[in-house]
Design goal:
With 486 residues, the protein is an alpha+beta fold. It folds into three domains: 79 residues, Immunoglobulins (Immunoglobulin-like, Sandwich); 258 residues, SGNH hydrolase (Rossmann fold, 3-Layer(aba) Sandwich), CATH 3.40.50.1110; 104 residues, no CATH class. 23% of the residues lie in helices and 28% in strands. The chain is built from eleven helices and 25 strands. Strands 2, 4, 5, 7, 8, 9, 10, 11, 12, 13 and 14 form an eleven-stranded mixed beta sheet that branches. A four-stranded antiparallel beta sheet has the order 15-16-22-21, with no helix packed on it. The chain has a four-stranded antiparallel beta sheet with strand order 20-19-23-25. Helix 5 packs across helix 11. The longest helix has 23 residues.
Length: 486
């Protein structure tokens, strides 16, 4: 080889090497950051990404500039001081050897919207889809959807997705429940709202739960040990514990956010107490990842399939709903009850408007301190046997208990002289009988001529408790419950 050729090859190699080094040295932001995003107000805001090891990086938003140095793996992170809500678009600038400028950045409230198909269900498939999509013009609501259905045996740092301004062209394909939840928050709080959708129809709760979450609940040690054994070559799928979390939730962290709404459970529908433990693990794991005070509100499963006329009940999703109600013992959680708006022949009820509204009711009351709002319908508190009857007391009675009737998107109506349905009582023999139930102030008195010495009560404790009609005057239904553990 001639000297000239050798020099040419050497020069080309140097050029390619410098090009690779230059590309590798470029500052890069995590995929959750982008134009038109919303940053969380009133909390420190992590901003992170990658650069050449040892590279100095500065992040500027408004009058704040924070600096960091990329570690040996090339990762860097800063935390912006808590920001005030701002509906005027700003520029977030990230500078190292190159500069990134993100435009139209707002500051407000950020929520993740997650679960299986009923959370994934699009606005364009909800009730009144044409009207709802056409009216979805909310420039202060921003949407980020994690596309595709992906899994990983190990935690990923990146996932695809981009922020979009909420308008008919973007909202139609977004989660209907998430949209109706965020729309109400924006109207009530009058601040920008960021909604992050990460959903996968037909999935169980386990793949959405982090390894740390499983480890936080002793009853789930077997699953914790299973995910501990994963490595990069482990084959996982959509039902594998932590597999969806690794690919579709972990890459979003530690993005600052206020809370999560969750609609899932159909794929775990045969469970009872075990789902209570798994809900604990899910919440614990996400709080460790995003925010120790992360608000967490879920949807109790709707009425579905052919009604069961047995007073005993306990069929289908009854025990899972009970586990969902029991999980309310975790701090800063809430549950939207929707046993009055399901469809017997459709596991995907189209009324997502009331679902989003009821989730927002919890958030407005508990997260945002609007104490004048009653967060939910009546929740079982206690009971007392009184002769041949049982007196049941409730939390969240609001302005009072009523016999209610809900039709479509219309507000709940009080039924004058109506009778309460779907209450059952049992004696020590554990045989259940339909009961007469009457409202007495903030309590319900339950009795049956078939049970002279009652010891336990059940309400709406079946797969499809059609006719269940206990509400508060605010028009929100009572949750199914049982006082026994048989």
């Amino acid at each position: 080889m001639s000297c000239r050729v050798r020099l040419a090859c050497f020069a080309a190699a140097c050029f390619l090497s410098s090009l690779v080094t230059s590309v590798h040295a470029d500052v890069k932001l995590a995929s959750i950051f982008g134009d038109s995003m919303v940053l969380q107000r009133d909390l420190p805001v992590p901003v992170w990404g990658w650069a050449e090891s040892g590279e100095d990086v500065s992040v500027t938003l408004g009058d704040q500039t924070k600096k960091a140095k990329a570690d040996q793996a090339g990762r860097w992170q800063v935390k912006l001081d808590a920001l005030k809500a701002n509906a005027k678009g700003q520029t977030l600038s990230v500078a190292g050897r190159n500069t990134i400028e993100l435009k139209d950045v707002l500051v407000g409230e950020v929520w993740i919207c997650s679960g299986q198909s009923n959370m994934e269900w699009r606005l364009s498939n909800s009730l009144n889809p044409k009207e709802e999509v056409a009216a979805a013009d909310h420039p202060l609501v921003r949407l980020f959807d994690v596309p595709g259905h992906t899994t990983s045996p190990v935690a990923k740092d990146e996932c695809p997705g981009n922020w979009q301004v909420c308008q008919p062209s973007s909202a139609g394909g977004f989660s209907a429940v998430g949209y109706f939840f965020g729309r109400r928050l924006q109207q009530e709080l009058n601040v920008p709202i960021g909604l992050i959708g990460s959903n996968w129809g037909g999935t169980r709760i386990e793949p959405w739960t982090s390894p740390a979450g499983f480890h936080s609940v002793p009853e789930l040690k077997a699953i914790a040990d299973q995910v501990n054994a994963y490595n990069e070559k482990t084959k996982v799928g959509g039902s594998s514990p932590s597999a969806i979390f690794n690919a579709m939730v972990h890459p979003l962290a530690p993005f600052a956010m206020r809370g999560a709404i969750w609609y899932q459970g159909e794929s775990n529908g045969s469970e009872g107490e075990s789902y209570y433990h798994k809900t604990q693990a899910l919440v614990n794991g996400w709080r460790k990842l995003f925010n120790p005070d992360l608000a967490f509100y879920w949807v109790q499963l709707a009425n579905f399939q052919k009604p069961n006329d047995s007073a005993e009940g306990g069929d289908g999703w009854a025990k899972l709903r009970e586990a969902q109600r029991k999980a309310l013992n975790m701090k800063h959680t809430g549950m939207a009850v929707i046993i009055d708006i399901g469809e017997a022949a459709d596991i995907h009820p189209r009324n997502k408007q009331d679902v989003g509204w009821r989730l927002a009711q919890w958030a407005l009351h508990q997260t945002y301190g609007k104490q004048d709002l009653v967060p939910c319908g009546p929740l079982y508190k206690s009971h007392k046997v009184d002769g041949n009857s049982i007196r049941v007391s409730f939390d969240h009675v609001g302005s009072g208990l009523i016999v209610g009737e809900k039709a479509g998107l219309e507000p709940t109506k009080a039924v004058t002289d109506g009778k309460l349905n779907r209450f059952a009582v049992a004696g020590a023999d554990k045989k259940w009988h339909w009961a007469e139930a009457t409202i007495d102030g903030g309590d319900v008195i339950v009795k049956s001529g078939e049970v002279t010495e009652p010891v336990a009560v059940r309400y709406a404790y079946s797969m499809n408790p059609t006719g269940a009609n206990l509400y508060n005057q605010e028009g929100i239904p009572a949750s199914p419950f049982r006082t026994d553990d048989w």
